[in-house]
Amino acid sequence: MAYKYTVKENWGKGFFTHEERRQMYLAGHPGNVWVVDDNVFGDQWLLKVVGANKTKAEAQAIVDGVIEDAQDAWDADNVDGESSDDKITRLGAKPVKYNLP
Amino acid sequence: MATYKKDKGLNVKSYTTDPDKTYPSAFEGQLYYNSSDGQFKYIGLGAGTWSSAPTLNTARRYPGGAGIQKAALCIAGQSYPSFYDLTEEYNGTAWSEEGDLSTSRGRLASGGTTTAAFAAAGNMGPPGNTDSAEKWNGSSWTSAGTINTARGNIAGAGSNTAAVIFGGNPSPAYTEIYDGSSWSETGDLNTGRNALAGNGTSTAGWAGGGGSPGASTETFNGSSWTEGPSLNSGRSYLAGWGTTTSAVIIGGAPPGTKCALTESFDGTSWTETGDLGTANKYLAAAGANNTAGIQIAGSTGGPPDGTAVNTSEEFTVSHAFKKVTTG
């Protein structure tokens, strides 16, 4: 399956519709990165939202950057005497990188 | 020989093409005959899908939710390091700011409707968890007393006159019920858990996910918990809505990440259905049953800052044409 990538902030109602979700794969990721099917429905959605289209490598770099920033912030956020379990309870687990489809 | 006309008093309509499947042209369960393909068919439920919905005025994670898809509340929450007392109401068209809580908090228990909701417990950052409970009458919050054990990452069900709260840390199995005037302890969850989902009523509630993260669910009958069918995907920091026979759970966090997974419960088992548009954890949700609901705020990035979102999405199960088959 081939995909296309764009960066656009979700503006709310109408950004993606039930009909569009039924027609194509769509998924949002950190950094306002969106992944859609590389087909006529994906192209129609890309034309609608007018995002900054990216290659997969460019989109992955944006996602990685957001997650790395979150990891750095997580590492730096410590409370004296706090156990690792307590830190996870307070902040949630440390973010992990993943690959875009 | 039995006929549909004899059994139901109705003739089966014949169409040359599949008819408009929306009410009032048609209704769920309607049987018809498609003369073009020679198939008896009925209008059944199709897959659930998510669409983007209006954005909230204030981005936040760990809020509480209440209400249904087109009439919902977003209660409190946080955007690290701030904790909010804010309430927003969704009327199906837009989110608007309403009366503030007395106590700012995140990771709270909540439930009810846009005219009769409650908020209880939660975390306030330093100095920790709160035992404060408040009730909403459609325009303002007033005190609903204090719970017995302060805690955060908790869930709840019910209304502003009859509620149940359960789970959370540091007492993950504790359950308390509210009778409209005070909170009292009742039967513990079978599996202690925090960062869980729950909804329903004070006499027919459910809890799911949460903990390590777990996939188990339980139902509450007003005094005790019974184990139920497991989720397909264990996770914590998820959200959910619905009843003990018709519910949905969404999003949440397998360890170290977040997910867009949505599971629907039909009273017997949990089934995966359409994913959220964006993976989300620390979110809230509202809805009446497994055919319609709304995701409210949450986090689509990682902690601790810059990750709270103001987005919402609406979940709707569409109708679909189903062929009648012989067993």
Structural notes for this entry:
The complex is a heterodimer of chains A (about 100) and B (about 325). Chain A is α+β, with helices and mostly antiparallel strands and about 100 residues long. With about 325 residues, chain B is mainly beta. In chain B, about 0% of the residues lie in helices and about 45% in strands. Chain B has one helix and 26 strands. A six-stranded mixed sheet of chain B has the order 1-2-3-26-25-24, with no helix packed on it. A four-stranded antiparallel sheet of chain B has the order 4-5-6-7, with no helix packed on it. The model of chain B has no long low-confidence stretch (mean pLDDT about 90). The interface between A and B is medium-sized, with 33 and 36 residues.
Keywords:
heterodimer; A: 101 residues; four-stranded antiparallel sheet; 4 helices; B: 327 residues; mainly beta; 2 domains; six-stranded mixed sheet
**What's the main sheet of chain A like?**
4 strands, antiparallel
Number of strands of chain B: 26
Per DSSP, the total helix count of chain B is 1
Radius of gyration of chain B over all CA atoms, rounded: 21 Å
Query: How large is the share of residues in beta strands of chain A?
Result: 15-25%
Oligomer: heterodimer
CATH superfamily of the largest domain in chain B: Kelch-type beta propeller
Q: Low-confidence segments of chain B, ≥5 residues, pLDDT <50?
A: none
Distance between the termini of chain B: 19 Å
The tally of beta strands of chain A, per DSSP, is 4
Short description:
The complex is a heterodimer of chains A (101) and B (327). Chain A is α+β, with helices and mostly antiparallel strands. Chain A contains four helices and four strands.
